[in-house]
Each structure stands twice: as structure tokens, then as C-alpha cells.
Amino acid sequence: MKKNFLFLGLLLLVSIRTQAQDIPEPEFSNRPYFLKDSILISFERVDASAKAKVKALGYGGSETFLTVEGLKSSTRFVSKSLPRIFIKFEENLDPADRVSVMVAELKGSDRRFKTMKMGGIYSYKIENVTDNKVLVTYKRIRANIFEVIFPDIPRGEYAFLSSGEYTTNAAMPQIKLNCFGVD
Prior knowledge:
By secondary structure, the chain is mainly β. The chain is built from two helices and 16 strands.
């Protein structure tokens, strides 16, 4: 009986090790990839522009959005069969502190991702904007590589935003989003 448990334990350990090794090394850190035919594929990667929407001349507060041209991402998935998604980090940090997954609202011919909401002109309070964030969990696959685990995700347009994606130039900050859509 003890030999059976020992054998099952070893078999489980070997299968877990083998499964983790089947994941190729992601090319870049802080960037999500999905697995297709044992190959890691990049998401649609786009430049987003930051835009603010002021309500009632500022008395009603303001909202800041990252805006991307086009209503649909070129990276598409079916809601019932999302692929495995992986992300690599150089340092040993909690992935939830580094990456957010946001759902878009469609406005005109653009996708908008709300990043900040502030109270009225006499209030400097930054309000909670988690209503457009998807709660995901992360599973460590091996050192610095995590699998992104989604709950049931409805149809819509989404983006990964990494806290390390802001770069500045003389004119305007460039913000990179990794987008995907679910049909």
C-alpha cells in the first residue's frame, strides 16, 4: 500500500515538472503570451493615448481613460475555451501588483479603458475604478513565470496593463497595452 502511494506521488511530481517544462521561455518580461500548439504567441500590442473626460466643468469630477483606436482587437478568443496565458517577471514580485486586466467600454470607434476617477472640483479624492478590472489569479509555473487564470470571462474587449509600460518622451507618455477580445 505504501509503495502505491509513493509511486502515485512520484508520478504526480514528474507530470507536474514535465508540464511546467513544456512552457517555452517568454521573450519579454511584463508582457503576456498565450500558448498555441506549444508556441507562445504575443497579444495585439498597441499604443494607447491618455484622455480625460471632465464632467460639468469639473464640478462633477473627471475620469481618465487609455484609448485605443478600433472597436475590436485582432487577438480573438472564444469565451468557453480561453488558451493558457503566461507572463514573465524579472524580479520576484506579486504579479497582481504589476499587471491589471481591464475591460473596455466602446465609445465611437475606440476602445476606452478607465484608469482613474476623481471627485468634483473641490474634492481631490481619487475614487475606486475596480469596476472595469477583471479579477484574475496567478499560478507560479517556474521561477518568474506565471500562468494567468481567468474566471468565466464574458464577451468583450480587454487589455493587460503593466505598471512598467509607461515610457516618456518629450511630447507625451507612451502607454503600451496588450489587447484581446472574447467572442
